[in-house]
Amino acid sequence: MSEKLKELRKKAMALPLSPGVYIMKNKSGEIIYIGKAKALKNRVSQYFGSQNNHVEKVRRMVENVDDFEYIITDSEFESLILECSLIKQHTPKYNILLKDDKGYSYIRVSNDEWRRLSYVLQKKDDGAEYIGPYKSSYYVKTSVEQAQKIFMLPTCNRRFPEDFKKQRPCLNFHIKQCCAPCRGKMSKKEYDEHIDSAIDFLKGGSAKTIRKMTEKMQEASEKLDFEQAAKYRDIINAAKRMQDKQKVVNIDIDECDAIALAIGENKGSFEVFRFSCGRLYDRENFIIDDIGDEETAREEFLLRYYSIREVPKKIFLDADLNDAEVLEQWLSDKRDKKSKKVYLLSPKKGVYKDLVDMCRKNAFESLAQQSGVTGKQLSVLEELKDLLGLDTLPRYIESYDISNLAGSENVAGMVVFEDAKPKKSAYRKFKIKSFEGQDDYSSMREVMTRRIEEYKKGENDGFSRLPDLILLDGGKGQVSAVKPLLVQAGLDIPLFGMVKDDKHRTRAITNENGEIEIKRNRRVFSFVTSIQDEVHRFAISFHHNRRKKMLGISLTKIDGIGEKRAKELLRYFRTVKNIEQASLKELENAPSMTHDSALNVYRYFHTEEEL
After folding, report:
1. Burial grade of 373 (CB within 10 A; 0-12, 13-18, 19 or more)
2. Domain 556-610: which topology?
3. Terminal Cα-to-Cα distance of the chain (whole angstroms)
4. Hey, what CATH class is 3-90 in?
């Protein structure tokens, strides 16, 4: 521990066991982090203890701390209020900070002869009609896109009537998403009817539009104008489809938010779904660098987000919070409604759990777009992390398996999965050298010993990176045989075995403490099974190739049989046993064989009496 850390720890140990706010500063006196604590002494002293217990973000922050200040408060809730106020005022580098950049959005109806619909963030004095303002840009954007599809409005850059008949209609016309006025076959009156209906839809909603279009369809049918009635019918069907898409969940409450966190290697992704009357009306995503501790990050995010957003009655989270009651009190005070009580909930089953899961999947998808990995891959790694109780996402996994035949030709295979996909360039093969005979435990110990030695040498690129997780094809015995090697080498790598049932199918994951059931989690089960199948295939394939090579070498001892003929014989007869049982005629008919070479092979496997 450095002298500076010792000095800071000594100061922290002198703090009172009172609630309050602590303020970390760098050498320039700049505030770099602000936090709250139930007991200042306990919380602040943790920063200046062993740095091995901290996540990377905290370690970097502590390295830059030159001094700290503190303010004692009467309660934890008061410290929360003060923390929020100070963070807003100073915007410290290591706190999660969100900008209130949403502003207001508008639906714009241009004042051209052939009007167009669009969504904009600013209202201008340009003669156009503006509908709004709306606080949700997501709502405005999706509503305009829906109206354009339902009423088949053009979204291209063509100008009317200047561009009539100059080009062929685009794809949208052929998939019935544009009425294609560019063909010059649509009257201005008919086009205006489409625009006016779209505006009514945006102002009054889909239910009102469906009623109005139904009336027009019936009126057209009574006049025997079946072509026009069919157009209204298509609009009604399109509006109903859009209405169904908006019914994301069926929740019998006025309003709620769902918030989920996805964590990658260096970043985190917060996804927020906002619901009213059971319908999604807004969604936002925030990518956060250096997420640090998950619970602290969730708490900080809630404070920052609802400092600049309206607070709903219920907020559903993907994990429990220790300080939920204090946060609920703060959120309730922020809520500007008659029913002020706000609830922070982490549902474990039912429709609310489905809601949070949907939110979490989207959080992973947003994070995946940043890292080049699919959301599905990151999601299964997150599930595996939670199931095994890992501290970090297992993005780089190594798996090992032993293969032999009655103790002969002992070999091992190592496969690597990076971001839930096989990384074949990192696969490695091992020949067991330290003993003869069948001993899977000793074989696994030799392989892991060599793996650790190669890492320490730092010469082999394939072994220069340590895995986030090691999976052995075997049970508790294999794990117990290898675990001491990792401990002795000072490597804190999670180690588990993959257990098979009596039908050689993946059944569970185990460590020295016992088995973990995985069959209930379908995605994790499929993923672990694919790893176990792949490492088994790789080890078996290496073993078979070794045996063929050794058998080929034994055939070259026969006069007239070189390496090429030995390979041809093995390829033709498949096994040495089949070569031994082949007749002289069958040997002569084999590729590249002559009568003399066939006779030599036959004599090698048969006594004089059999000739």
Report:
1. buried
2. DNA polymerase; domain 1 (1.10.150)
3. 83
4. alpha beta
Peptide linkage before 161 cis (omega within 30 of 0): yes
Neighbours of 3 (CB within 10 A): 7
Contact 283, 268 (CB under 8 A): no
Q: Which residues lie across from 288 on neighbouring strands?
A: 268
Contact 293, 58 (CB under 8 A): yes
Tokens 């096989």 belong to which residue?
422
Class of domain 388-546 as given by CATH? alpha beta
Domain ranges of the chain: 3-90, 106-246, 255-372, 388-546, 556-610
Would you give the distance in Å from CA 358 to the centre of its chain? 12
The secondary structure element, H or E, covering residue 289 is strand 279-289
The H or E element containing residue 388 is: helix 375-388
Per-residue pLDDT at 160: 86
Helices (H), ranges, 511-560: 522-555
Distance CA 61, CA 41 (A): 18
The answer to whether 210 and 204 are in contact (CB under 8 A) is no
CA pseudo-torsion sign 448, 450, 451, 455: positive
Q: Which residues contact 369 (CB under 8 A, 6 or more apart)?
A: none
Q: What is the pLDDT of residue 583?
A: 86
Would you call 378 helix, strand, or coil by DSSP? helix
Output the CA–CA distances (angstroms, integers) from residue 540 to 9, 401, 418, 604, in the order listed. 55, 9, 22, 30
Residue with tokens 């939110």: 359
- At the top level of CATH, which class does the domain 255-372 belong to? alpha beta
The sign of the torsion formed by the CA atoms of 524, 527, 530, 536 equals negative
| pLDDT value at residue 254 | 66
Domains 3-90 and 255-372 share a fold: no
Of 486, 418, 411, 419, nearest to 449 by C-alpha is: 486
Residue 471: per-residue pLDDT: 94
How confident is the model at residue 166, as a pLDDT?
A: 84
Cα 93 to chain center, whole Å? 26
Helices 206-222 + 226-246 axis angle, to 10: 160
Give the span between the Cα atoms of 607 and 553, in whole angstroms.
22
Phi, psi of 70 (to 5 degrees): -150, 155
CA distance 597 to 559: 7
Q: Identify the segments of the chain with pLDDT beneath 50.
A: 242-250, 406-407, 608-611
Q: Is the peptide bond before 133 cis (omega within 30 degrees of 0)?
A: yes
- pLDDT attached to residue 97: 79
Tallying the residues shown for the chain, one arrives at 611
